[in-house]
Amino acid sequence: MELLQVLQQVLMLIEHQIQQQQLIMYLIILVGALLLDLCVGEYPTRLHPTVWIGRVISLFKSRLKHGSKVREYVNGLIFAVALVVVVYLLAYNALSILEANSIAMMIIASILLLKSTFAIRAMEEHANVVINSLMRNDIAGARYSVSMIVGRDTSSLDEEHILSATIESIGESTVDGITAPLFYYALFGVAGALAYRAINTLDSM
């Protein structure tokens, strides 16, 4: 009995150490991704995983059309579920393979992938362009700039409504582009954050 108790304590200690190591690794990846975003901003289009996901959606979107609305709905549902699962599995398996060979490479890849799921610096830059235009009394320029971050006609907006649209866009982007990806990262890791990004991209298209 004493031997069993000792073994249980050893196993609990090992499990605790593993959990601590995993937590530290999660934090390293998170901090690394945040710093990378603040330093470099958005990736070039050709290197952005979200852009790749969008291109896949665009490729299949027209092929999912059908004369029957029910069939079209089913096609879309199957495609959406399949896309999210494939994105998750690709990321999870790729990172697992890297982890089995090199923890350092897995951490670097995780930082690069996680950073692609949120955009703090890009959101700030877009908002600053609008604000700077308004400070120069360049209403036309502010309208154009705000049209880049909202999904409605901005050609007739005055200064008050331009500011309102900018704040609204920042609020939406904070949820969709920052807190939500990091929430799913906390729950399901980098693969979960990418799967969320796939869902969000599907919704926007």
Short summary of the structure?
By secondary structure, the protein is an all-alpha fold. Helix content is 82%, strand content 0%.
Can you characterise this structure?
The chain is an all-alpha fold and 205 residues long. The chain has helices at 2-40, 49-61, 69-101, 103-115, 120-135, 139-147, 159-204. The protein is globular, with a radius of gyration of 22 Å. The protein starts with a helix and ends with a helix.
Task: Describe the SSE topology.
Elements: H1 2-40, H2 49-61, H3 69-101, H4 103-115, H5 120-135, H6 139-147, H7 159-204
Helix pairs in contact: 1-4, 2-7, 3-4, 3-7, 5-6, 5-7, 6-7
Topology order in helix (H) and strand (E) letters: HHHHHHH
Which secondary-structure class do the elements indicate? mainly alpha
Tell me what portion of residues adopts beta-strand conformation: under 5%
Biggest sheet architecture: none
Low-confidence stretches: none
Rg from alpha-carbon coordinates: 22 Å
Amino- and carboxy-terminal Cα gap: 62 Å
Contiguous helical run count: 7
Number of strands: 0
Instruction: Using the alpha-carbon principal axes, give the shape.
Output: globular
Average pLDDT metric: 83
Helix content: over 70%
